[in-house]
Every structure is written in C-alpha cells, then in structure tokens.
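Write out this protein's structure.
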Amino acid sequence: MVKIPEFRKLINFGKTSYVISLPKGWIKKNNLKKGDTVVLKRNSEGLIILPKISKKKERLEVQIKADGKSLEELRREIIANYIDGYNTIRIIGEHVGNISGRIKRNVLNKLMGIEIIEEGSKKLILKDFIDPEQMDVLELIRKADIMVRELFIDVKDFFKKPKVSIDNLYARDDEINRITYFVSRIIKYKLEISDSEFSPMQFLIIWQIMSDIERIGDEVKRLGKYLKKLESEGEIKMRIKSIYSEVEKLYLDVMRALFLKNRKLALKLAPKKTTLITKLKKLSEKAHQVLWAQNIIEKMKNIVLLTNNIGRMVSHLILTNEQ
C-alpha cells in the first residue's frame, strides 16, 4: 500500500519561528497531549519529527542450557545474549558447578557490568546492573583509545630490553575487548529507543570505529609478540622502529580528528596511508630474510589500513552530524 504524503502550511509565529499543525491520528497513536515535547532530527533529506518517548527495552531474562555444550559454545552464547541486551542470564545444567570457575575466568571477566547474583551446583545466575541510558558511547571509545595508546607505548619498549611482559599486552587487549562488547550492547539498546542522541547511520559509523579500534589493539598486541622474537639488531630493526613511530603518530592524529570533530584534519591525513604502505613494501623487500620481520611489517600494514578506515568513518560521522 502506497502511503500518501500529508501536507501542512507554515504559520508565522513571532519574528523568528514558524509552526505547523500535526496530524491528530499521529498524536493519538503516540499518546501525546498538549505540553508534551517532540524531538526534531535533521538528516540529508529534511526534518524528522519524533515523539519524545523512550521506548525502553524491558529488563529481559534469558535461560541457557549448559548440558552438552563446550565452554566455547557457552562463551559465545553468553556474550551474544549480553550484547542483545538481556539483563539476567540464567545458566542451568547438571554440571554447571563444575565449570562455573572457568566461566568466570574466560567469560565474565570480558563483560562489563555483569555480576553473579546466585551460584549453585546446577545453576549460575548473572545480572547486569548498568543503566544503558546513562552511557555515552563516545566516552567509551575514549577509554578504548587510551588502552590502545598504552599498547603502542608498551610495544615501543620491545625495541630494547622490555620492561613489560607480553602478559601486559594481553591484559590491555582484554580490556579493549570488554569495552567493545559493552559498546555493542549500548548501541543496540539505543537504536531501540526513539530519542537517542545519534541517528541509526551515525550509530553504525560509531560501531565501525569501535570495531576498528579493537582490531588495531589486536594487531599492536601481536606486533609486540613478534617484535620480542625479532632476530635483528641492525639497520632493519631501526627502520622498523622508525616506521612504527610514524604508524603510531597516524593513529594518534586520526583519533584527535575524531574527538575534535575536525573533518578537515581527517581528510588531510588520508594520503598518509599510501606513503606508509609504500615504505612498508620497500622494507619488506629489504628484510625478506630476517626472521619475524615480515610478520611485524604485516601487522603495521594492517594498523595503517584500519587507522585509515577510522579516518574515513570520522569524516562521514562529522558530515552526517552537520546535515
């Protein structure tokens, strides 16, 4: 059925404003009355009017049957339900008590806001106590960014005799993963309410930025692991160190563009991808016989590509916000 658009005339209201009348049917459908507030959202096509009603997702509960499932299957199911917005997760089974310790170590430590409220031989009940409406996704991205910056600094230490261990890198990466799961949960929740601070398109861009930050964290962590094994102390290692510093600076500058909402800076940084990829290709040709050097170069290449993608997303995010 084709919806026929409705037309309304603008009415002059004072010296600086205009008003339009809203359809009575729409008012009734959204349970609005005189004095209620509506939300105005601008996009590339025009202006959208929404009722200021938070259609909060109910505090949902889900039950997971553990019998016959591996720890990895349970991990995936718990995380999927967590991201999907379930606030109470019941894990039941004849032998839950035997695996509860591993669930705590391998699953719950990776999820923000989840606590155990009941534990027994045949059940484990998890509860989320964080109100998603109070969460700012950009502030969460800031936290993940801080962890990535710390990873870059820690890995730089591996160019000499390292003072930090590989375990430190994995611990920082785990924290980035926790934030990533949490951001996914918050974005999914906010997409289901009508008065979110961002449009669905903007939330999609923000999710992509968070995903790329998480992947950069993975690559920096792995780079550190290979760097520790690198069997070279001469020119190749110094060249790797020099390009690594450039890769780190590109990441820092792109994130600065995000937090300053500086689209011009994001666009200005785009050509640096080609420059760095060219340098890495030349280094790869020169270091083809150096053990682990190719692994390190590949990780730096991936970081450059992911950082460049964040820059593109920053440009799109700022552009959609201006429309």
